[in-house]
Design brief:
It comes from Ramlibacter tataouinensis (strain ATCC BAA-407 / DSM 14655 / LMG 21543 / TTB310). 17% of the residues lie in helices and 32% in strands. The chain has 593 residues and is α/β, with parallel strands linked by helices. It folds into 3 domains: 15-170, Galactose-binding domain-like (Jelly Rolls); 175-278, Sandwich (Immunoglobulin-like); 298-582, TIM Barrel (Alpha-Beta Barrel), CATH 3.20.20.80.
Length: 593
């Protein structure tokens, strides 16, 4: 069960995975408040698979509000520090080490950690206990596609409770680098580097940074640490000529990564060292086009729910994450829209390495309350902080289809929430486009996303063809019965992307675990499925109004049988046939397509 190094852009040598067998129990009454109250552990669970999943060894999808985990670890205290880290625990967590409270965290999709050095038992036997609380019917917390009904319905899926990403420990020096952040600046051919220290304060500190592209040394700099941090711009030699310059630029076609070694120095002595990577690439919008590295770029995306039949939100392992990236590329897509899920950082690592763009989307809450918005903003800031440095991430999407803000046309405070999250995101990350609310009812946004599941290609031509002007589109069209832009927010020339369409349901073999399949359109045979897909893609690709598209969807997900792949990632149609139409060159024909 290989999950790879959990934090791929800050990798140290000394770390221990705590995935595997843990003791486990339910606390449906929620009466237990600390480990000393637990008299017996009746179950065992395989971490990081949630208890609702088959792979966990439990597979109980009933309503359980509170769960407990415990395991022992052999670890002798030393002269260094020990940090306990969690990739994600849904929804709120409390962690004890040897009976002492070590950490609390709220938010089901983001990492947290605790320095447990002072809690370690000198004997070397360390007991870690986790309490996770996740009310299955609470709609004010960001929950994404997790169903609040006992049986999954419509387009919602089984719940995920508790630990669902890697748990691990690492040894670090008494003074260590806690966080880093990379910011590519293609226009100036430079890369911003930020680092923040943790642990003990120390004098005479500096940081050495070595940046390479394969065997070529790009930079070897040393910076003084001031007030526990470093914030510098690394100027690279600009080759000037595009042919040479492009060798260093990251894109799906050429995913060039720059390898980094970072050393924290005290005087001339290395006290902390790790490896990282970054890339040179820029993403922005210019008038009606998406721009990658200063050039117009057609987005060919597929919507990816990020679920697996036996592990749910958790991935089966690192190989499965890599395989999903490879399959998306093999079908001709240059990106994915990770839908209602904050994906495992290992997926982003493979997307960085193999060349696949990713839209980062915040899982939705489903009620509009002050609590829901505060929870969303807090967790969204952690998402951006975690994934900021990944070159594959090209767009942020805080809201989808007005979920959690259902009355945007009439309730001003809900409009303010979308506008606030848009500007909040732009404040935390000024380098990427932001879609305030994807699908319809757009207000503050850099890209207008449209969701339209009409499978009739003639209807698509009539709505979005060459004879349609953007002002006609926004005044008259109502895909999904919703207006495309809110009053006061006319189209300002932003790129228009068909961010959901297709949804063709086809199943050759019925899944006995799924009682009723669901999709927007149905195909009865493999050939019908392929022809419907090809017709839609040819129409959308040759529609000049669109700067790109996102097809629904990558793989079947429980009752949604509308994937290009079955749930086990077996293709419904030969990958080569899918790729042939997905990657068609765009042609523009005056007066139509």
């Amino acid at each position: 069960m290989d999950f790879g190094y959990p934090r791929p852009q800050l990798q140290r040598a000394q770390w221990i995975s705590l995935n595997g067998t843990w003791r486990f129990c339910y606390d449906d009454a929620g009466q237990l408040q600390n480990p000393a109250q637990i008299e017996r552990w009746p179950l065992e669970i395989t971490v990081p698979f949630p208890p609702e999943s088959k792979a966990s060894g439990i597979g109980d999808q009933g309503f359980h509000k509170t769960v407990w985990y415990q395991r022992e670890v052999d670890l002798k205290p030393g002269n260094d520090r020990v940090i306990l880290r969690f990739g994600a625990v849904d929804y709120s967590a409390r962690v004890w080490v040897n009976g002492s409270l070590a950490a609390t965290h709220e938010g089901g999709h983001t990492p947290f950690s605790a320095d447990i050095t002072h809690m370690l038992d000198p004997s070397g036997r360390q007991v870690i206990t986790v309490r996770a609380e996740d009310d299955p019917q609470e709609l004010t917390k960001p929950r994404g596609k997790q169903d609040w009904q006992l049986e999954p319905h419509s387009l919602w899926y089984p719940r995920t409770t508790g630990i669902w990403q890697t748990v691990w420990m690492e040894r670090v020096p008494r003074t260590y680098v806690d966080k880093i952040r990379w910011t590519p600046r293609v226009e100036g051919f430079s890369i911003g580097f930020e680092a923040r220290l943790g642990g003990d304060r120390a004098e005479d500190l500096s940081m050495e940074l070595i940046l390479r592209h394969e065997d070529r040394l790009l930079a070897r700099d040393r910076y003084r640490v001031v007030d526990g941090e470093v914030d510098r711009s690394i100027a690279l030699s600009d080759p000037g000529i595009d042919d040479f310059r492009n060798e260093l630029l990251w894109s799906p076609e050429r995913p060039t990564l720059l390898d980094a070694t970072v050393r924290l120095m005290q005087g001339d002595r290395v006290i902390d060292e790790f490896t990282s990577y970054t890339a040179l690439r820029s993403v922005k919008t210019l008038r009606d086009r998406f721009m990658l590295n200063g050039r117009p770029y057609v987005l060919r995306l597929v919507l990816d729910q990020g679920y697996w039949p036996d592990t749910l939100l958790a991935s089966p392992g690192d190989d499965a994450l890599r395989r999903d990236v490879e399959l998306a590329k093999a079908m001709g897509f240059n990106g994915v829209r990770k839908h209602q899920k904050v994906e495992d950082p290992r997926y982003l690592y493979w997307a960085d390495k193999l060349g696949l763009m990713v839209w980062g989307e915040m899982p939705s809450a489903y009620r509009f309350t002050r609590t829901a918005i505060k929870r969303t903003m807090r967790e969204w800031s952690e998402v951006i902080d975690r994934d900021y440095s990944h070159p594959c991430v090209i767009v942020w999407v805080p809201f989808n289809e007005s979920w959690g803000v259902p009355e945007l046309t009439s309730v001003q405070s809900q409009r303010h929430a979308v506008e606030a999250l848009y500007h909040f995101t732009k404040t935390l990350d000024a380098t990427r486009p932001v879609i305030g609310n994807d699908g319809w009812e757009s207000s503050a946004t850099d890209i207008i996303g449209i969701h339209d599941y009409d499978a009739n290609t003639e209807h698509i031509r009539q709505r979005y063809g060459a004879e349609i002007q953007p002002e006609q589109l926004f005044d008259r069209r109502r895909p999904g019965g919703r207006i495309l832009t809110l009053d006061g927010y006319p189209h300002r020339g932003q790129p228009i992307v068909l961010t959901e369409f297709g949804g063709i349901a086809f199943q050759r073999h019925a899944d006995p675990a799924v009682k009723k399949t669901w999709g927007y359109t149905r195909a009865d045979t493999e050939e019908d499925f392929a022809r419907l897909y090809e017709g839609l893609l040819r129409t959308v690709i040759h529609t000049a109004l669109f700067s790109g598209f996102c097809y629904t969807q990558f793989a079947d997900t429980f009752q949604e049988a509308n994937g290009l792949l079955y749930a086990d990632r077996t293709p419904k149609v030969p990958l080569e046939r899918i790729k042939a139409v997905t990657s068609l060159s765009r042609t523009y024909i005056p007066g139509g397509v």
